[in-house]
């Protein structure tokens, strides 16, 4: 009788301890959430199709595509980084043409990184190996090489070309004349270390994926900081990091920021005030999964193209925010 009672007592104690642990875990989860955080249900990524190259031949396949862009007609431009070229596909993934080829002369490419397409079809391609922006006309004919150190990602809005470099943001006319620049290398607010993704909204707010500083910054056209999400961790693999590695950045038609998080193999959604809404995607090689994705572009109707870098492909998919869930208050 004594043994049975003792056993029952120990079981009860274990149950109580388990309940307490679960309760404390839930309490920690609730209290650790940012105040006033709004969460959303998002659909799983809806893969539409993937692009692996212009044909199945080895020499025609993509190798480490780093960035993507849409033109006004919905065609898809891909920087085929290790092959030193850009492929253009139509909205259904059919190959149209190639822009640039391996070389060092006018229009030559070595390691094309970022790409942007103006409304008139002018294409801007950053090449980190050649320290330049290669400018091509709508037919893919080289127009001009704009030299600058460590160009990362171009972005076109209106008649302005924004370019992230290793430590600053530069602004040009579409003809290639430098208009202004802001930022410098560092970890303080308004400073950058190898920023990559950039997007500018119609109100002139500039959103930058500050890659090495593991954060996203929103600034005004003069560089004044509006908000910062994330901060440089004390240790590069520290658990205090908000993002794994923020890379490509796109503005959706819905007004949300779509951030490619390369190390977390996902796309993180942020509101335009910096609040994290949620994330979609996971590591893998199946449709809707990613392996160190790099660039992202919005077509404007909920359809996105993602440079799925280490899967050597571009995925075209749909992301939608379906339903707002009850606001959580602290």
**Strand order in space, largest sheet:** 2-27-26-25
What would you call the structural class? mainly beta
Kindly state the percentage of residues in helix.
under 10%
Termini Cα gap: 49 Å
- Give me the strand/helix succession: HEEEEEEEEEEEEEEEEEEEEEEEEEEEE
Which ranges are low-confidence, i.e. pLDDT below 50, for 5 or more consecutive residues? 21-43, 325-330
* Count of DSSP H/I helices: 1
Name the average pLDDT: 87
Largest beta-sheet details? 4 strands, antiparallel
Report on the structure:
This protein is mainly β. The chain has one helix and 28 strands. The chain has one helix spanning 2-31, and strands spanning 40-42, 46-51, 65-70, 76-80, 85-89, 95-99, 101-102, 108-109, 112-117, 123-127, 132-136, 142-147, 151-157, 160-165, 169-173, 178-182, 198-200, 206-210, 215-219, 225-229, 246-251, 257-261, 266-270, 276-280, 296-298, 303-308, 313-318, 321-324. It has a four-stranded antiparallel β-sheet with strand order 2-27-26-25, with no helix packed on it. The longest helix has 30 residues, at 2-31. 36% of the residues are buried.
Brief characterization of the structure:
This protein has 330 residues and is mainly β.
Main attributes?
330 residues, mainly beta, 4-stranded antiparallel sheet, 1 helix, 42% strand, globular, disordered C terminus
């Amino acid at each position: 009788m004594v043994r049975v009672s003792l056993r029952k007592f120990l079981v009860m104690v274990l149950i109580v301890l388990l309940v307490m642990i679960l309760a404390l875990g839930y309490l920690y989860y609730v209290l650790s959430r940012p105040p006033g955080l709004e969460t959303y249900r998002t659909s799983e990524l809806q893969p539409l199709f993937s692009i692996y190259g212009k044909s199945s031949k080895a020499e025609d396949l993509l190798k480490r595509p780093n960035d993507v862009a849409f033109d006004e007609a919905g065609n898809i431009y891909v920087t085929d980084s290790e092959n030193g070229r850009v492929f253009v596909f139509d909205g259904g993934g059919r190959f149209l043409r190639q822009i640039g080829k391996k070389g060092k002369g006018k229009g030559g490419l070595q390691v094309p990184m970022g790409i942007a397409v103006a409304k008139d079809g002018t294409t801007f391609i950053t090449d980190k190996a050649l320290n330049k922006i290669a400018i091509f006309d709508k037919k893919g004919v080289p127009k001009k090489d704009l030299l600058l150190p460590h160009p990362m990602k171009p972005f076109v809005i209106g008649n302005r070309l924004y370019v992230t470099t290793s430590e600053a943001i530069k602004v040009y006319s579409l003809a290639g004349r430098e208009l202004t620049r802001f930022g410098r290398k560092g970890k303080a607010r308004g400073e950058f270390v190898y920023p990559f993704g950039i997007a500018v909204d119609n109100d002139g707010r500039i959103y930058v994926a500050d890659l090495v500083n593991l954060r996203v910054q929103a600034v005004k056209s003069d560089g004044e900081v509006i908000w910062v999400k994330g901060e440089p961790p004390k240790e590069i693999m520290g658990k205090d990091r908000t993002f794994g590695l923020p890379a490509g950045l796109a503005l959706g038609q819905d007004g949300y920021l779509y951030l490619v998080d390369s190390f977390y193999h996902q796309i993180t959604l942020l509101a335009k005030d910096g609040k994290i809404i949620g994330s979609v995607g996971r590591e893998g090689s199946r449709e809707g999964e990613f392996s160190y994705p790099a660039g992202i572009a919005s077509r404007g109707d909920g359809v996105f193209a993602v440079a799925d870098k280490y899967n050597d492909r571009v995925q075209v998919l749909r992301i939608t925010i379906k339903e707002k869930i009850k606001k959580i208050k602290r």
